[in-house]
Amino acid sequence: MYASTGATLPTGPGWTFEPKYDGIRVIAVATAGEARLFTRNGNDKSRQFPEIAAALRALAARAGRSLVLDGEVVALDAGEPARFQALQSRMHVEDPRAVALHATQAPSALVAFDLLLDGDEPLIARPWRERRTRLERVLGRRGRGGKGGRLRLGHTEADGAALLARARDAGWEGILAKRTDATYAPGVRTRHWLKLKVEQRQEFVVGGYTEPRESRKHLGALLLGYYDRDGRFVYAGHTGGGFTHAGLADMARRLRPLARATSPFTEAIKTNAPAHWVRPEVVVEVKFSEWTADGRLRQPIFVGVRDDKPARDVRREPVARSGAA
DNA sequence: CTGGAGTACGCCTTCAACAG
DNA sequence: CTGTTGAAGGCGTACTCCAG
């Protein structure tokens, strides 16, 4: 079951709110003898996260029945759910010795937020609040806290505004709003679950663009930068999202007269398609989810051209972040 | 050491199908 | 006729693997 994107925080009774955990969404199928973690594409990730699989087997053994949970595999940092990048190094690792090393050095946990099957009893036709009660009963106190635990109970609360405020402070990607009376519709994107994103946006200067790859016209992606304190032009990533056909044509018209032979960026950059350089004069507004550890934009989307700001004044803006998501 | 291919996540736009 | 929805296509970052 997938969430639709919501524009505003829903109000009134009948909604519950959860943090948007930043990891890999999985359906966990657990029996006493075997546990599997399936991604959205149906790939089995249980070999990549053996510590979670073991905890699931133990849970099913203790419960004396098989269980199917919906949740998110997250990296842990000091016992708390951390950022997505910490997981990426593990996503494709298959060698058993490498997996074992990761499991101790970069431990992960499953944050469970739904229970779909409890023994022989399917719960997907039951309302969320009932499934939640059953989930809490199954996970017990171990799920609620416990920094060492590999299975966590996802947080949920009734005050959406408060949770959204926390999300902003802590630099989370966003929160989810769920109807407490909604049944679980497998594989379906529904308005009963809404994703409310905490988006960041700021201006960047276009330092070049890449050639279009497939059937796209005019340009592929904008190469974005900003000026640091020493006046150096720093690369921030590239974005090809957010353009309409007309927007691409307009951007190409703006950039063509600014062509130059060499890169304006201080660092050498790698692109998926051949790059064209321009004098860094066009200022664009870009929304994005977060800065990566390497100083790149994650999920950057072009919003529009800013004619009102001199390119020289474009800096990297500080982000409020008081903890990990 | 480097570059390209392949895979994972997810976003946005477009377009066709469908329901009211 | 209009609005919604889902799939496809085109982007991103980050990682591994492999060839040279």
Automatic annotation (TrEMBL):
Keywords: Ligase. GO terms for molecular function: ATP binding; DNA ligase (ATP) activity. Its EC number is 6.5.1.1. It catalyses: ATP + (deoxyribonucleotide)n-3'-hydroxyl + 5'-phospho-(deoxyribonucleotide)m = (deoxyribonucleotide)n+m + AMP + diphosphate. One of its GO terms (biological process) is DNA recombination. Belongs to the ATP-dependent DNA ligase family. This is DNA ligase (ATP). It comes from Gemmatirosa kalamazoonensis. The lineage of its organism: Bacteria, Pseudomonadati, Gemmatimonadota, Gemmatimonadia, Gemmatimonadales.
